[in-house]
Amino acid sequence: MTIKRIHSGGPFEEKIGYCRAVVAGGFVHIAGTVCGFDEDAGTETTDVAVQTKGILKIIGSALAEAGVGFEDIVRVNYYLPDRAEFEACWPQLREAFGANPPAATMIECGLIDPRFRIEIEVTALAG
């Protein structure tokens, strides 16, 4: 079996010892992804909706490098330290998944840094 590892160059990959995505066994497994940066404003943010937008961009880049897209995602897990913030993410998620919504789970839990308000991990079919 061929395994392809996709690195984003993010600081946690080397510190913790993981990569952004792994393509193996007919699937693309994308690691839990966070983003505390507002690209439009050029600043850090704790706004969950803005973080979701950044996370989806990072995930989209990993999917593209794996040769697939959001329409190929079959499973998504959302992790939030405050479940009350999840609804603010729904518009970005609907836009990203469109007519191809995956199976989904939302879990309320602590994240690696309190500035992160959401973490998203996905599994997609490999092309």
From TrEMBL:
It holds the Pfam family Ribonuc_L-PSP. It comes from the Bacteria. SUPFAM superfamilies: YjgF-like (SSF55298). PANTHER family: BLR7761 PROTEIN (PTHR43857), YJGH FAMILY PROTEIN (PTHR43857:SF1). This is Putative aminoacrylate peracid reductase RutC. It comes from Octadecabacter temperatus.
